[in-house]
């Protein structure tokens, strides 16, 4: 196997690993959201940003390597067969599966965010609807609590 092919397979393996890490981060973010763990959710979002930056860097490396391989093939007047095409097929299959998993988790995560946003909006609307009703009582309770604190 040529050096370029080996490097390309290694880059694909790294991409699969990053996608699997991104999947795990999406699952953890969903758990943090359900548990209303805002700090955990924020840390997962930051982690996901870093993973996406790493994936972009890796994609840039892969693109440069593809251009180098294409230039190499043109210089040698034809196609060079990949000695380990079965290995490449296996890696590409695992890459496809990892990408499909991230896509499915991302879709589920997006749906959860949309439902959460609608729930928060409904709660805020409800609070605004009853603001006048509860405002007077809340002010009275606050005044009573302040008086008790002054007496102590």
Secondary structural class: mainly alpha
What is the ordering of alpha helices and beta strands?
HHHH
Instruction: Identify the overall geometry.
Output: elongated
Give a short account of the largest sheet.
none
Helicity range: over 70%
Distance between the termini: 83 Å
* Number of H- or I-type helical stretches: 4
How many beta strands in the DSSP annotation?
0
Rounded average pLDDT: 83
Q: What percentage of the residues does DSSP assign to strands (E)?
A: under 5%
Domain unit count: 1
> What are the segments in which pLDDT stays under 50 over at least 5 consecutive residues?
none
Q: Tell me the Rg in angstroms.
A: 27 Å
Give a brief rundown of this model.
The chain is mostly helical and 152 residues long.
Itemize the secondary structure elements and their pairings.
Layout (H helix, E strand, L loop, with lengths): L2 H32 L3 H38 L9 H45 L1 H21 L1
Overview of the molecule:
By secondary structure, the chain is mostly helical. The chain has one domain (3-151). The protein contains four helices and no strands. Helix 1 (3-34) runs antiparallel to helix 2 (38-75) and helix 1 (3-34) runs parallel beside helix 3. The longest helix has 45 residues, at 85-129. The protein is elongated and about 85 Å long.
What characteristics describe this protein?
0% strand, elongated, 89% helix, 4 helices, 152 residues, mainly alpha
């Amino acid at each position: 196997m040529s050096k370029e092919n080996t490097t390309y397979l290694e880059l694909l393996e790294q991409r699969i690993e990053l996608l699997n890490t991104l999947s795990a981060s999406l699952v953890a973010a969903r758990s943090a959201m359900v548990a209303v763990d805002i700090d955990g959710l924020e840390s997962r979002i930051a982690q996901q940003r870093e993973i996406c930056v790493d994936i972009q860097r890796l994609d840039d490396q892969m693109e440069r390597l593809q251009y180098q391989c294409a230039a190499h093939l043109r210089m040698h007047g034809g196609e060079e067969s990949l000695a380990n095409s079965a290995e490449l097929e296996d890696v590409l299959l695992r890459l496809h599966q990892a990408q499909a998993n991230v896509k499915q988790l991302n879709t589920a995560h997006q749906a959860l965010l949309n439902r959460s946003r609608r729930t928060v909006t409904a709660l805020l609307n409800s609070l605004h609807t009853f603001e006048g009703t509860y405002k007077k009582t809340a002010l009275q309770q606050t005044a009573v609590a302040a008086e008790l604190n002054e007496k102590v």
